[in-house]
Amino acid sequence: MVDEFLPTITADPINMNVEKDFQNEPNNEPPKAGAIAKMLPKETWKVDTRISLGYFAIDLLAVVSSMTFLNAVVTSDNYHSLQMWEQALAVIPLQILTGFAMWCTWCIGHDAGHGTVSKNKDWGSVINRVVGEITHSVVCLTPFVPWQLSHKKHHLNHNHLEKDYSHQWYIKEDFTDVHPLMELAHATRMLFFPFLYFVYLFTGIPDGGHVLFYGRMWEGESMKARLDGALSVAVSFATAGTLWYNMGTSDFAVVCMGPWMVMGFWLFMVTYLQHHSEDGKLYTDDTFTFERGAFETVDRNYGKWVNRLSHHMMDGHVVHHLFFTKVPHYRLEAATTALQVGMKERGQEHLYKLIDTPDYSQEIVKQFHDNWFFVNEENVVREWK
Fold first, then answer.
1. Cβ(297)–Cβ(131) under 8 Å?
2. Is 121 strand, coil or helix?
3. What is the mean pLDDT of residues 336-363?
4. If residue 246 lies in a helix (H) or strand (E), which one and from where to where?
5. How many Cβ atoms are within 10 Å of 170's Cβ, its own excluded?
C-alpha cells in the first residue's frame, strides 16, 4: 500500500559495487538503500503470512487473557471488600501486565500499517487491514487508518526539522519566539506526561487529528481517504462504547483505560527514545536525504526479553526505518546484525547508533524533563559539508 513511497532498493550502476560506492562518497555520507540492501540476508525480505498471523494470534490471546483476568478480579466480591488503596495495589500489577500485552499487540498492528503482515497478491491488503483494525482500532483504541497515514509521513520525513511527524522539534535557542500555549505546554510537561498519547490522538498536536480530521496530515487527502479513516474511528468508538456500556464507568476505567494508559506510555517512550540522542541530527530541505534521516534514528537495547516481546521495535529500529515496507518484525534482529557487520566493513560503523537502555522508564522521564522536544541549533544540519 505504501511501497511506492520507499526509495528503490534495486541495484543501480553505483550500488553494484559496494567498494566503489564507498570510495566515491565522504565517510559521513550514509550508503544508499540499494547498497545497504546488499548487506542483509536474503531472508530479510521474506514476509511469511503464517508466521505473521501466528504472532498476531499469540499477542491477541495475551491481551484477552490478561484483561479477562483483570476484569474477574475487579468484579469479584473480594475486590469490593477491600479499601481503595488495597484495590489499587491489587490491580496495578495486572494493569501493567495487560498494558504491556496491548503494547506488544500494537507492534503487530504497526507491521500491518506498513503492509508487512502479508504480501499475498490476492489477500495481502485485506489481511493487513483486518489485522490493523483488530490490533489498533479495537484492542488499542487507536483508529488504524488515520494512524497509518500520519505514521507513513513520519517515515518519509524522519528527522526532518519541519516535515517530520510524531515529533514537534523546537530549536532551543529560538524558543522565546514560540506561541504562549507552547510555552505553557513546556512548563507543564511533566503534569501531562501520562496523558500525552491521548493528547496526540484527540487534539491533533502536532500532526493533525486522528479522531477529528483536521491539520496538516489531512491536507490534500481525498474524501475516499477521509471516509476510510472514519471507518477506523467508528470501530474504535463502537468498541469503547460497547465496553463502557456493559462494564460501567468504574470497571471500564480500571479494566480498559488503566491498561490503555500503560500501552500509551510504552508507545510514547519507544517513539521518543528511538528518535532522540545527544548527538542526533536534524535536517532541512537543503540537506535532508532519506538515508541520512534513517541513520539518525536510534536502536536501543531494553533487555533481551523486552526486545523480543516488543517484536524488536526498539533494537531493530534503524533497519525498520530504512526498509519500512519491506521487512517484517521477525526479520529485524538478523538484519540488524548484518547491518552492523556491513557498516563496519565499510568503515562507517560510527553512523549506526545503538544505546543500552536497561533503565528505560527512568530514562524517558529524565530525557523528557530535561530535553522535552528541544534540539540545539548546532545539531541542525543546514549545510552538508
1. no
2. coil
3. 97
4. helix 223-247
5. 16
